[in-house]
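Chapter review: from sequence to fold.
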Amino acid sequence: MANKQGHWYDGAEIGVCSVGCGRGANADYVCCEPQVGICVADGMGGAPYGDFLARFSCHVAMASLREGGSASDALQVARLGVQDLVKTIDSPKSGTTLTVVRFTSRHLQVAWMGDTACFVLLRGANGATVRSTLETCSPCEGQRSTMVEADAIMGFAVCTDGAWRMADDEVMAAILHECAAADSPSAKKTAARLAFGAEGRDDATAVVVKLR
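The token string follows.
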């Protein structure tokens, strides 16, 4: 999977699309750095400061990734920072979910808390399959992490629940497989397909990574 630069993620195409449901402010937030990783957060809709906490958590997590922290380390730092902020602003119902993805030379690290999810299209002997963080545990079970071998990855997406709830497993697999194929839609168009598919029921954000 490594290209001439030496890493499987070099030259990856990253597409982002975020669609608000009309509450006046989109509470989702994304940070992407192609050589580092991706952070996607969903602020609690309707609760005060949800959009601010989503933005804050993404920037804190990305700073940790830049400094060499793992996806789990970055998520933990962001989670503790959000907890401190919630106490400071005295708004216990406020919060955010967060998924952190880190690129390493041989793996994709994924850490998450809540229902912002990662979907990875994997090549296998019997064809391509989609592995999701939603399969690993309930969104209510706290901070979790996993690692995926880079050689098996055909592409992946990180979505807030406003996007993935409108795409069942078969639809998600079909969308990611189409994006990974030769002469396929761009990562940006694929992200837009996922985000706009939510039909305005919730803020919907999708980040799609297409490997070259």
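Two observations follow directly from the output. The domain at 13-210 is CATH 3.60.40.10 (Phosphatase 2c; domain 1). DSSP finds five helices and ten strands in the chain.
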